[in-house]
Write a structure and sequence with these properties.
Length: 266
């Protein structure tokens, strides 16, 4: 027997347990820190438009102010209120996507038809800016996905591509099939994302150029939402720089054959 008490197998088990507990408690700390950082960002992001709204409302109500100035201030107030409401909408969206029981509803979808409906939504904006919009999706390609959610993803990526691409250049939406995987890409000819920020652009509130993004109404939540939706599909998304300049957003999805839904990992 083992007069000294625990045998070595038992000691190993206890050691493993202690290490697991140590790791769990570190994970918990990290999660708490992340949550705190997120809440602080939310508060900060909400405060900025609120400050503008309060400040300009005070100015607009000053006695003797000209009609012209009042109109200018009202326009700013409206813009900031719009930004606030977009922010709150996206926060709700993230909260929903983050719920453990959130699941995408997968069904076979003809990708070219889905793309057509998104393209018809964004085409006017592309035409207005003078950016060419090209689409190349195999006519009969069927993918199992959540149509509404995936439309939202394409809308967001095309919107970003348009925002960052100068007039006279092109944005290309394409899909290719590699065995059981479908690759969907949105490629633009814009300024591109700096190499060291290619993965951080998917973080909540991350913006490459804060002040510029604010002016164009950006919240820094769009790509975070896109990533959550793709991951809820069991897929992946990544950003790359094009050698010739510009960005490619690449989505990899299981073509689908298995039924049921994917639950988001959280
Ligand atoms: P925003 O609401 O600010 O656009 P996103 O989450 O959609 O937030 O994007 C995060 C940041 O990634 C943006 O601020 C922008 O700087 C950068 N970005 C996204 N798409 C592109 C693109 N196609 N080309 C260059 N930069 C991009």
């Amino acid at each position: 027997g083992h007069p000294a008490g625990l045998d070595t197998g038992r000691q190993d088990e206890l050691g493993d347990l202690a290490r697991s507990i140590g790791k769990l408690s570190k994970d918990l700390d990290r999660m708490k820190n992340e949550r705190n950082a997120f809440l602080a960002s939310v508060a900060h992001e909400l405060r900025t438009p609120m400050t503008y709204i309060q400040g300009y409302a005070d100015l607009a109500m000053k006695p003797g102010i000209s009609g012209e100035a009042r109109e200018k201030y009202s326009a700013i107030i409206r813009e900031e209120a719009h930004h606030l409401s977009k922010l709150v909408g996206q926060l709700f969206e993230l909260a929903r996507l983050d719920q453990n029981d959130f699941a995408v509803r997968l069904s076979p979808v003809k990708l070219s038809a889905l793309a057509d409906s998104v393209l018809s939504l964004v085409r006017p904006a592309f035409e207005e800016k003078g950016v060419q919009l090209l689409c190349n999706i195999p006519e009969r390609l069927v993918v199992r996905l959540d149509a509404t959610r995936f439309q939202q993803v394409l809308l967001n990526l095309l919107d970003n591509a348009l925002k960052h691409t100068p007039a006279g250049k092109q944005v290309h939406l394409q899909a290719t099939v590699l065995k059981d995987t479908v690759k969907v890409e949105v490629a633009d000819e814009g300024e591109g994302i700096p190499e060291d920020e290619l993965s951080t652009v998917f973080d909540r509130f991350y913006r490459v150029d804060k002040s510029r993004s604010r002016k164009s109404g950006g919240t820094g939540l769009g790509l975070a939402i896109v990533k959550e939706i793709i991951e809820a599909h069991g897929g992946q998304i990544e950003a790359r720089r094009r050698p010739a300049g510009g960005t490619v957003m690449t989505i990899l999805l299981d073509k689908g054959g298995d039924d049921g839904t994917h639950s988001s990992g959280g």
